[in-house]
Amino acid sequence: MIYVLRLLDKPGASALRDAVRPAHKAYLGQLADRIAFAGPLVADDGVAMVGSLLAIDFDSRGAAMAWLADEPFTRAGLYAGTEVHAFVNLWPQKAGFVP
Prior knowledge:
The chain is an alpha+beta fold. It has one domain: Alpha-Beta Plaits. Helix content is about 30%, strand content about 35%. It has a four-stranded antiparallel beta sheet. It is globular, with a radius of gyration of 13 Å.
């Protein structure tokens, strides 16, 4: 099942995000074949990162939560809040995705 993870950064945490981002990307890379989409949430300026939105295939909610608990941004204390939701994709993607 696909689980969508909505992860919002603590205010003023851009330096922490920048410092931990290489470890975060490496951790995501371990699941590359199971990622439906992943990327930063940004402010209205389209540049400043304020969180992350991930859609990843996990065997269960427990597996998604365990993965999130060991995720480098989580371990570094970057997130002010997290949400994990099961997701069913019923619409073919046409916008915002690299061909």
